[in-house]
Amino acid sequence: MNSNILIIGGTGKTGRRVVEQLQNKGIKPRIGSRNASPSFDWNNKDTWPNALNGVERMYVTYYPDLAVPGAKEAIHSLTYLAKELGVKKMVLLSGKGETEAEACEKIVMDSGLNYTIVRASWFNQNWSESFFLDPILSGEVALPLSDVLIPFVDANDIAEVAATVLLDDSYNGEIIEVTGPELITFKDIVNIISKTSKRKLNFYDITLEQYIDGMRQMQIPDDVVWLIEYLFSHVLTNPNNQLVVHDIERVLGRKAKPFLEYAQETARTDIWNPVNVT
Ligand SMILES: NC(=O)c1ccc[n+]([C@@H]2O[C@H](COP(=O)([O-])OP(=O)(O)OC[C@H]3O[C@@H](n4cnc5c(N)ncnc54)[C@H](OP(=O)(O)O)[C@@H]3O)[C@@H](O)[C@H]2O)c1
User: Fold this and answer.
1) CB distance 40 to ligand 1 below 6 Å
2) Ligand 1 center from residue 62 Cα (angstroms)
3) Given ligand 1 and candidates 61, 160, 227, 240, which is best to mutate, with the most ligand atoms within 8 Å of its CB?
4) Residue nearest to atom 39 of ligand 1 (CA)
5) Residue among 29, 12, 266 nearest 166 (CA)
6) Domain count within the chain
């Protein structure tokens, strides 16, 4: 049993897929999350030493996002605790074009630990496992910035890259930028999901202000509204994010998964079928 590898967020969008990747190689990683045993809670530092005890390598996903207030301090404390406890390598999941995430990357890079940064663009799985799922299920998708080009990346590709660099020290000291193979707009995506799921989806191009007002009317908590507004106004519009990078191909020796392929696979799971909503 190789429980000296810790996956923080090991039941999340990328973490659970990293766990699967490692299990396929015969490795049994330890999961770091509130429901794991031992438990790891970002909001309770007392849980950290137990969760990190005996760990040699760790994949770190911060929840909910490296951009939120407090993330930098948490990453700083965790990184230096890891160093003190003898962790040999950290792989940090970061976000492309996020100033706050880059500050977190720098903490890890300056710590003296071996590291690899996996810097991702927006995930395909936001449409099936996160905040874009509900509008898809309702059939009414209203989004701002509908023509912005985004290199959506698949969480399976991110996980395969993360598992590879976690085990392979030849990637130490590198920033691996993971993007999908094409630039795509929200409008294109809703079309693709409509076709693959065989559902009529209405798309409305709205302003960011209308989008924020809509979230407030739905009584979405203020910190979530703040994060989504930040992601739309800073991350999505950052020209550095509107580029395809070929690091997935460099690390995995194969092309990144196109959005259409993700959509075909996801449609087959029936998750976009509103009949299955509980
Ligand atoms: N979504 C995107 O498009 C995107 C793009 C670029 C970068 N990112 C980055 O991706 C990171 C998130 O990664 P992800 O999407 O793979 O994870 P995720 O699905 O957002 O995270 C869920 C995981 O976090 C755990 N978790 C939730 N609250 C926690 C807490 N207080 N303490 C400890 N664990 C907690 C959950 O387990 P429990 O419930 O058991 O605790 C679960 O394992 C963020 O830092 C974000 O900046 C996201």
Assistant:
1) yes
2) 6
3) 61
4) 34
5) 29
6) 1
Q: Measuring CA to CA, how many Å separate 58 from each of 6, 35, 93, 157? A: 5, 18, 11, 18
As given in the structure block, the two tokens for residue 230 are: 């930040």
Evaluate whether residue 275 is within a structural domain. Answer: no
Decide if 234 is inside a domain. no
Q: Is the CB of 33 under 6 A from ligand 1?
A: yes
Per-residue pLDDT tens listing for the chain (278 residues): 457 999 999 999 999 999 999 999 999 999 999 999 999 999 999 999 999 999 999 999 999 999 999 999 999 999 999 999 999 999 999 999 889 999 999 999 999 999 999 999 999 999 999 999 999 999 999 999 998 999 999 999 999 999 999 999 999 999 999 999 999 999 999 999 999 999 999 999 999 999 999 999 999 999 999 999 999 998 888 888 899 999 999 999 999 999 999 999 999 999 999 886 65
User: Looking at residue 170, which CATH number applies to its domain?
Assistant: 3.40.50.720
Query: Domain for residue 101, yes or no?
Result: yes
The rounded Å distance from CA 200 to ligand 1 centre is 31
The answer, yes or no, to whether any atom of ligand 1 lies below 6 A from the CB of 151, is no
Give the atom of ligand 1 at the shortest distance from the alpha carbon of 14.
16
Give the pairing type, strands 140-143 and 89-95. unpaired
Query: Is 105 domain-assigned?
Result: yes
State the amino acid at position 169 in one-letter form. D
Phi-psi region of 54 (alpha: psi -120 to 50; beta: other; left: phi over 0): left
Q: Which domain holds residue 54?
A: 5-123+152-180+241-257
